[in-house]
Amino acid sequence: MAVVGLGDVSVVHLAAIEKLGATLVGVCDSRGDYRALLDEVRPDVVHICTPHDQHVPVALAALERGVHVLMEKPVAHTLEEADRLVAAVKDHPALKVGVCLQNRYNLTSQALFEFLRSGEMGAVRGGSASVLWHRDAAYYAARRWRGQRRRSGGGVLINQAIHTLDLLQWLLGEVTSVRGHAGRYGGVAGGGSVDVEDTAHMVLDHADGTRSVFFATTTNAVDSPVTIEIVTERATLLVRGDLTVTYTDGRAETIAELAPDGGGRAYWGASHELLIADFYRSLDDPAPFWIGPQEALKAQHLIDEIYHH
Ligand SMILES: NC(=O)c1ccc[n+]([C@@H]2O[C@H](COP(=O)([O-])OP(=O)(O)OC[C@H]3O[C@@H](n4cnc5c(N)ncnc54)[C@H](O)[C@@H]3O)[C@@H](O)[C@H]2O)c1
């Protein structure tokens, strides 16, 4: 394995590589040349942990060299850039490309998915989700790209809430219509100027007629647990850390989430390692990895709709 981009999130990737018993053959940050790294060490897989505008260039260089790609979210800072990767993936069908939407591997997400698919909850009446987090001046000052739309593509939606938006569309089905707004409502706590949005709301209509509503902000006083609530004919399923299922007859059950074990920040969850392990396993499998660029772009298309329409 090789890792390109040695900032905050790389710590989680490096820890997973070691824990899974894979061999790290090279790393490269912005003072190095990722093309030279790929040529010299010829890894099987490159983990891409760079800022959003530096995902696709590294991925294309890897595919050209026959290297599998595991990239951080989002696919790219713009849809045009993402489409360059989608085209390249078609030209390299033997290579795997995975995107780190690791929250699909949360125990609570997997349990929700199974409950809804099993039919035992009855028809879905609707869903809602919230991401109420705190990102202050220090967060943006530490890495300027995070507050620069031309490099990040945006703020709370594309950077933080994309995971939860992806879960909503994965759990409740394809979104046929999205309306909402994103803006700079709160500013940056502690000062400093950024040109990315800090708050957004959305109403999503899913293909089967279900509606979900969504709210995200980085202006909250603290990092509150993400919530996802799905109401069905027979139960209310609420994720807030753990998953609590409360049945209409009064019974309740709880499915506990895995606790992060030191490598990551609590709000990133513990699921990176699960996704990375699954990606490595998929290398022996002829089918594409299930969270490839096109799958990951479903949530990004919704975000783009809010940004540009
Ligand atoms: N999945 C998650 O939960 C999660 C959590 C945090 C961050 N992320 C994502 O991870 C990515 C990185 O975020 P971060 O917070 O670690 O950023 P960061 O700024 O801390 O780290 C990025 C690193 O990439 C390096 N870099 C920039 N351009 C490069 C290039 N061309 N070649 C090599 N290195 C280059 C920078 O010098 C920096 O060290 C982003 O896409 C972010 O959205 C995902």
Automatic annotation (TrEMBL):
Residues 111-237 form the GFO/IDH/MocA-like oxidoreductase domain. Residues 32-93 form the Gfo/Idh/MocA-like oxidoreductase N-terminal domain. InterPro entries: Gfo/Idh/MocA-like_OxRdtase_N (IPR000683), Gfo/Idh/MocA_Oxidoreductase (IPR052515), GFO_IDH_MocA-like_dom (IPR055170), NAD(P)-bd_dom_sf (IPR036291). It holds the Pfam family GFO_IDH_MocA_C3. This is Gfo/Idh/MocA family oxidoreductase.
